């Protein structure tokens, strides 16, 4: 199979305004590497479990301690590549990170581009807004914390300041910083 390049959009479901990244990745990237690319580009810390969801199947790391592994629609994702799931423009899947906070991300294949020999690592070409901090309670709690942080005299301000910090800027997005991190990682498909 010809090695194509995928332009995908990863967006945090339920975020308003939308928190998203537009990424360039090889179509033959293994899902474990795509997980690392998403973690890096969104600003997560890879501190929790994750899975990709496509056509009612759950692509994730196998759990030897999970007696229900075979009963559920779980698939060991080590050898599954992005192009095994996303085959045509507008195809979609879900990436869930942190099963407690349930940070669900929509992944949409926006464009299929020809092979590019100069591409040596994944690239973030666009995006908006800062990713919520780890363990901040899910998208609804994060939205509430942002509102509480706006009013230093209001109820909940101290909790919001604890989780987000008083100088937290939800608008922050630095594409160059993300790309520097992506360049520094080792992704085996290049």
Protein model, in words:
This protein has 190 residues and is α+β, with helices and mostly antiparallel strands. The protein has two domains: 137 residues, MM3350-like (Structural Genomics Hypothetical 15.5 Kd Protein In mrcA-pckA Intergenic Region, Chain A, Roll), CATH 3.10.290.30; 41 residues, no CATH class. The protein is 24% helix and 26% strand. It is built from five helices and eight strands. It has an eight-stranded mixed sheet with strand order 5-4-3-6-7-1-2-8. Helix 1 packs antiparallel against helix 5 and helix 3 crosses helix 4. The longest helix is centred in the N-terminal third of the chain and has 12 residues. The two termini are 15 Å apart. The mean pLDDT is 92.
Quick rundown:
With 190 residues, this protein is an alpha+beta fold.
The number of distinct structural domains comes to 2
Q: Provide mean pLDDT, rounded.
A: 92
Second-tier CATH architecture of the largest domain: Roll
Alpha-carbon Rg, integer: 18 Å
Report the CATH superfamily of the largest domain.
MM3350-like
Class computed from helices, strands and strand pairing: alpha+beta
In terms of DSSP E residues, the strand content is 25-35%
| CATH topology name of the largest domain | Structural Genomics Hypothetical 15.5 Kd Protein In mrcA-pckA Intergenic Region, Chain A
Q: How many helices in DSSP terms?
A: 5
Shape: globular
- What is the CATH class designation of the largest domain? Alpha Beta
Strand order across the largest sheet: 5-4-3-6-7-1-2-8
Catalogue the unreliable spans.
Answer: none
- The percent range for helix content is 10-25%
Say how many strands there are. 8
**String of helices and strands:** EEHEEEHEEEHHH
Q: Measure the end-to-end span.
A: 15 Å
What's the main sheet like? 8 strands, mixed
């Amino acid at each position: 199979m010809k090695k194509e390049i995928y332009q995908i959009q990863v967006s945090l479901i339920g975020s308003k305004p939308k928190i998203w990244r537009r990424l360039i990745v090889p179509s033959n990237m293994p899902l474990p590497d795509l997980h690392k690319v998403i973690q890096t580009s969104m600003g997560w810390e890879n501190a929790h479990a994750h899975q990709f969801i496509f056509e009612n199947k759950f692509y994730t790391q196998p759990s030897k301690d999970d007696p229900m592994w075979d009963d559920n629609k779980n698939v060991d994702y080590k050898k599954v590549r992005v192009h095994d799931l996303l085959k045509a423009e507008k195809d979609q899947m879900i990436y869930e990170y942190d099963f407690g906070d349930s940070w669900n991300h929509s992944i949409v294949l926006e464009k299929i581009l020809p092979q590019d020999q100069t591409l040596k690592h994944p690239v973030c070409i666009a995006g908006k807004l800062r990713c919520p901090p780890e363990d901040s309670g899910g998208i609804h709690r994060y939205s509430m914390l942002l509102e509480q942080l706006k009013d230093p005299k209001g109820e909940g301000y101290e909790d919001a300041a604890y989780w987000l910090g008083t100088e937290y800027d939800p608008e922050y997005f630095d594409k160059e910083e993300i790309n520097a991190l992506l360049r520094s990682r080792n992704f085996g498909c290049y």
